[in-house]
Design a protein that fits this description.
Blueprint: H1 6-17, H2 25-33, E1 66-69, E2 75-77, E3 82-90, E4 94-100, E5 106-116, E6 125-126, E7 131-135, E8 147-155, E9 164-167, H3 169-173
Antiparallel strand pairs: 1-8, 2-7, 3-4, 3-6, 4-5, 5-7, 5-8, 8-9
The structure holds zinc ion (ZN).
Zinc ion is lined by residues 1, 3, 5, 63, 65, 67, 149.
C-alpha cells in the first residue's frame, strides 16, 4: 500500500539505536498467534490480507506494518483485550491509537483513523472486537486510498508505549 509508516519506523529505529535486538520476532509471532487476534477492520476476512510489512519506502526505511484497505468510516476494532495506552496525533500517522495487550508485552498501533470511537480515552479497558475508531486517511495516507495502518510492537522492558520492536502483523493475523 501507499503510506509511509514513518511514525512506526522511527519508533523502531529509535529502539534499535538504543541497542534492542529485533531478532526475537519468531517467538513474538508464535506468542501472538496463540492470542487469536481478530482482524482490526470490521468485515475484513483474514484471507483478504496482503503482507506489506517489508515494503521499501525509501533507501533506509521499511513499512513495518500491515495496511488494510477499507471504505472510509468502516469500524476499526480492538484486536485483543487490554487498555488504551495513548491517543496520539502525528504528521505521518494522523489520528492514532496505541493499545496495550493485557500483559503489556505488546502495543498494537492503529493509524490514519477518520476519528476515534465516541468517548474513547487513554486508560480505558478494551475488549477484543470493540469499536475503537473508523478507517480514514489522516496523516500521510493518500486521500483516495482509505486504509488502516496496523502495527504491533514488542515493548521494551519499561513498557513505554513509544518504545518497541516492530513485529509483522501479517503472520499473526493470517
Ligand atoms: Zn501503512
Amino acid at each position: 500500500m501507499t503510506c509511509s509508516g514513518a511514525a512506526a519506523t522511527a519508533l523502531a529505529a529509535a529502539v534499535l539505536a538504543a541497542g534492542v535486538s529485533a531478532g526475537a520476532d519468531d517467538d513474538a509471532i508464535r506468542d501472538l498467534r496463540e492470542r487469536h487476534l481478530v482482524v482490526p477492520v470490521q468485515g475484513v476476512d483474514r484471507d483478504a490480507l496482503h503482507d506489506s510489512f517489508g515494503d521499501r519506502r525509501d533507501a533506509t526505511r521499511r513499512h513495518e506494518a500491515l495496511d488494510i484497505p477499507a471504505p472510509r468510516n468502516t469500524p476499526v476494532i480492538a484486536v485483543d483485550d487490554g487498555t488504551v495506552a495513548k491517543l496520539f496525533r502525528s504528521k505521518p500517522g494522523g489520528i492514532t491509537i496505541y493499545h496495550y495487550d493485557p500483559s503489556r508485552t505488546y502495543a498494537y498501533y492503529y493509524a490514519h483513523l477518520a476519528r476515534y470511537a465516541e468517548g474513547l480515552k487513554a486508560g480505558d479497558t478494551l475488549r477484543r472486537g470493540e469499536i475503537i475508531g473508523y478507517v480514514g486517511t489522516t496523516g500521510n495516507a493518500p486521500p483516495a486510498t482509505p486504509h488502516l495502518h496496523f502495527a504491533i510492537f514488542k515493548l521494551a522492558a519499561a513498557a513505554r508505549w513509544w518504545e518497541g520492536v516492530a513485529i509483522d502483523p501479517y503472520p499473526v493475523l493470517k
